[in-house]
UniProtKB/TrEMBL annotation:
InterPro entries xref list: GlpE_sulfurtransferase (IPR050229), Rhodanese-like_dom (IPR001763), Rhodanese-like_dom_sf (IPR036873)
Provenance organism: Variovorax dokdonensis
PANTHER family: FAD-DEPENDENT OXIDOREDUCTASE, RHODANESE-RELATED SULFURTRANSFERASES
SMART domains cross-referenced by the UniProt entry: RHOD
Coiled coil region boundaries: none
Highest rank taxon of the organism: Bacteria
Name this protein carries in UniProt: Rhodanese-like domain-containing protein
Domain Rhodanese: 25-115
């Protein structure tokens, strides 16, 4: 039962904030924030790499070279991240997942942010 929220998220290609933390800590997931640089600068998940959605296809491979690592895609509310998961998977990142609810869910879970 403890894994139920994570399993539900995995079925939709999205993780809860708690599931995301576990993925980062246990499997060294790479966090990619697809918001615009101005949004990213206001606060982001610690260690996140900023690759705006409109540049994802061109720049993801140069930003995240190891396609076997889990990829956690973050945006403001989760809507853009869900679209980005499809792009990432098309590029060979089989373990790409979106953060359900985006950065808002991360903040709501009282998880730390870093400002650029």
């Amino acid at each position: 039962m403890l894994f139920w929220p994570m399993l539900q998220g995995a079925n939709r290609g999205a993780l809860t904030a708690e599931g995301a933390v576990q993925l980062i800590n246990r499997q060294r997931a790479v966090v990619v924030d697809i918001r615009e640089p101005e949004e990213f600068a206001t606060g982001h998940v610690t260690g996140a790499r900023n690759v705006p959605l409109n540049q994802l296809e061109a720049k993801l491979a140069g930003t995240v070279k190891n396609k076997s690592l889990p990829l956690l895609i973050v945006c403001a509310s989760g809507a853009r991240a869900n679209r980005a998961v499809a792009t990432a998977r098309k590029l060979g990142y089989e373990q790409a997942q979106a953060l359900a609810g985006g950065l808002k869910a991360w903040k709501d879970a009282n998880l730390p942010l870093t400002k650029a």
